[in-house]
Automatic annotation (TrEMBL):
Protein name: Cupin domain-containing protein
């Protein structure tokens, strides 16, 4: 199989669980993020991280928004997480379930459990999140 000269080769990466790898200061201040190294390994093609909810849900955290991505998958590792999607309605993930969000779908997070942890995979790694009116 011939590889395009415009695509940088991917490299092997492994990420083992380490509590010190959870960092705040990401997209939302109520979450801590553990980068799994996928963006660096794929030269920005994709991103994967574990999101841990570190604050109890409050209704003022519910902001309608969308992401300019080509692909977004959310898998619930622990607890539960609920979002209201435009045109679909409220959906709840529980441990072991996942959804794929179509590119640009407007949504509002409407709740999570205190022990909620999510795996999120995005393409591309760098993308814009836009708060909707």
């Amino acid at each position: 199989m011939e590889r395009s000269s415009r695509v940088a080769p991917q490299r092997f990466v492994i990420s083992h669980h380490n509590e010190a790898d959870f960092k705040t200061g990401g997209l939302r201040d109520y979450s801590a993020y553990r980068d799994l190294g996928v963006a660096a390994a794929t030269h920005g093609l994709a991103k994967a991280h574990v999101i841990r909810m570190i604050a109890p849900f409050r209704t003022e955290l519910s902001l309608r928004h969308h992401h300019n991505v080509q692909f977004q998958l959310v898998y619930c590792l622990k607890g539960w997480f609920q979002t209201d999607f435009e045109g679909i309605g409220p959906q709840r993930l529980v441990a072991g379930s996942c959804w794929v969000q179509p590119p640009g779908i407007r949504h509002t997070v409407v709740g999570w459990s205190d022990d909620c942890e999510l795996l999120e995979i995005l393409i591309p790694a760098e993308h814009e999140t836009i708060n909707d009116p």
